[in-house]
């Protein structure tokens, strides 16, 4: 009794699909929404999250043919600050939409009458809360911070999340691999951004009085009813 050899085709199967499926959750879980700022020459690209946290820096492959290594830091500053402004703009748009959605989804509003004394009290509380927030913000935001990259080839200063100045070793920039330069720049920019941004105040002023006033201002009909001026 003999057993015939199985043909290779009898054992073939395509493992491409299950490999792709296995990789898919990893790709999805690591995806981050980002914005990209560039310098005018397109040599430097800085990617940041919507919270203006620096994710990466990318240099054009031929950047040394376009920019003198002694001037690379100028493009980095422009690209980094452009990314920060784009991130803040995107976040403000998202906050406006989120606030509108929350207002529309609110289960109900306080319809209790408001007297002139109530309005005066509310405005006084809001003014006090805003003054306190301003003082907190000024104490932190007006400070200029400094930092140095892990390889000590790049250093810089920043204030209020904006890069003020970078100093880069031109000899190192002329000889180092792009990936090495990108890594040090990204690390430095992330450190400067983090140290110069008051994260606990980044969401803006919040208090019971401010939230109440915002709620009234966003719903004029409700405000009129509570003042006894609406139907």
pLDDT < 50 stretches: 1-30, 99-107
Specify Rg, calculated over alpha carbons: 27 Å
CATH domain class: Alpha Beta
How many β strands by DSSP? 6
Q: Major sheet: size, sense and barrel closure?
A: 3 strands, antiparallel
CATH topology: the name is: Ybab, Chain: A
Number of helices: 9
Helix percent reads 40-55%
Mean pLDDT: 78
Proportion of residues in β-strands = 5-15%
Keywords summarizing the entry:
single chain; 231 residues; Ybab, Chain: A; three-stranded antiparallel beta sheet; 9 helices
Put the structure in a nutshell:
The chain contains nine helices and six strands, in the order ααβββαααβββαααα.
Structure notes:
There is one protein chain. With 231 residues, the chain is of the alpha+beta class. The chain has one domain: Nucleoid-associated protein YbaB-like domain (Ybab, Chain: A, 2-Layer Sandwich), CATH 3.30.1310. Helices cover 54% and strands 15% of the residues. The chain is built from 9 helices and 6 strands. Helix 5 (116-141) crosses helix 8. The longest helix has 34 residues, at 72-105. The protein is elongated and about 75 Å long.
């Amino acid at each position: 009794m003999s057993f015939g050899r199985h043909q290779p085709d009898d054992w073939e199967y395509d493992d491409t699909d299950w490999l792709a499926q296995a990789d898919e959750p990893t790709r999805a879980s690591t995806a981050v929404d980002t914005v990209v700022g560039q310098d005018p020459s397109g040599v430097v690209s800085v990617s940041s999250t919507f919270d203006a946290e620096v994710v990466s820096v990318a240099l054009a492959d031929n950047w040394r043919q376009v920019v003198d290594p002694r001037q690379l830091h100028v493009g980095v500053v422009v690209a980094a600050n452009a990314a920060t402004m784009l991130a803040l703009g995107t976040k403000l748009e998202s906050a406006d939409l989120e606030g509108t959605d929350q207002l529309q989804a609110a289960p109900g509003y306080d319809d209790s009458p408001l007297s002139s004394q109530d309005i005066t009290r509310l405005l006084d509380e809001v003014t006090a809360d805003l003054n306190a927030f301003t003082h907190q913000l000024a104490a932190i935001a007006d400070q200029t911070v400094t930092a140095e990259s892990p390889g000590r080839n790049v250093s810089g200063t920043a204030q209020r999340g904006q890069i003020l100045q970078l100093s880069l070793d031109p000899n190192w920039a002329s000889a180092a691999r792009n990936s090495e330069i990108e890594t040090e720049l990204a690390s430095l920019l992330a450190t400067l951004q983090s140290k110069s941004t008051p994260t606990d105040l980044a969401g803006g002023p919040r208090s019971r009085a401010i939230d109440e006033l915002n709620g009234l201002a966003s719903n004029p009909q409700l405000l009129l009813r509570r003042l006894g001026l609406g139907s």
